[in-house]
Structure formats: C-alpha cells, structure tokens
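seq as requested:
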Amino acid sequence: MLAGIVSAVRQFGWGDRLITLLVLIGISLPSFWIGLVMIMLFAVQLQWFPASGMVAIWGGGGWLDLLQHLAMPAVTLAIVATGVIARLTRTAMLEVLRQDFIRTARAKGLSERKVIYGHAFRMALVSVIPVIGIQAGFVLGGAVYIETVFQWPGLGAMLVNAVSTRDLLLVQGGVLVAACAYVLINLCADILQALLDPRLKS
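struct tokens:
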C-alpha cells in the first residue's frame, strides 16, 4: 500500500515508473519460479538464507533461525499479492486525490502529509480492503506449491502429502481449515471497511 501511495503522489515521476515496473514484473512472474530463482541467488550463490526447511538440521530452532528460514518463502508468496494491492492502491489514491474535499483540505492549510494519510488514504482504503481479503485466498492457495518448493512443513505441504497418500480425511480437514481462514479474513475485511466508511452500513 505504501508503494501505491508513493506512486500516486509522485505520478509520472521516476518513482512511479520504477514502482510500476517492479509491480508488473512481480505480477507477471509465477511464484514458484520466483522461489527457485531466490533459492539459486540468495541461498546457493550468496548464502544469505537457508534453501529449505523450517529450522537448521544441526541444532537450530531459535526465533532467529526460524525467521531466516521463513524469509524467502514469505517474500515469494507475498510478491504477487503485493503487486496487485499496490496497483489498486495507486488507482484508488489517484481517484481520491482529484476530489473536491482534498482541494478543500489543502486550502484550509493542512500539511501535505495530513492530507494524504489522514484524508486521501483513508478514503482510498475503503476500496482496497476488500481486495486484500480476496488476495488472502490466492495466498492460501499459493502456499501449496511455495511450501513444496521450499520444503516448508505447513498446511500446503500437508495437503500435497495427503493427496499423494490418498488420505481423504486429512485433505478434507486441511481444505476446511483453509476455507475457514479465508472466510474469517474476508469477514474482518468487511467489518473494517464498514468502520472506515459508515455509509456502507445503511
């Protein structure tokens, strides 16, 4: 969302063009391919992060070790959703910044930061929040192959193993948990949207 705000405020500037380029690249590339490239670059060549697993096999298990193993899968999984949200935030901010109440706020002498974050972003957030809830479903679905690429023992890897061993009860339970999480995230998004814009309650 911050990238979308910067891109909208600096429309047609070099920051807007750079953010748009990065967002389009992130949206266009498959997540599993991005994960493989990150493994080759950051784990094999630079050796900044471990390539797979949840903790180190030689006696790891602390919070730092867990975060190091989580960094690349989390970034890979979030790239596509981040790009979609950034583009939508930019579009919503550009629409709000052209409205009359923004000109009025500037005419009253409010600082630009107050106008952007206190007025424009709050109104733009009303249209962005539902998409965040929808993107949560894509993130949960993408976890299946991202966890397989990084050998992360999560819900996605469990479902893959359950399907390969034909454990139908485990598959049903995993799908039920993922579906409940998706419904709860969208419910929270709808409630937050109604709190930001009281007109939606009527």
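The two ends are 28 Å apart (CA to CA).
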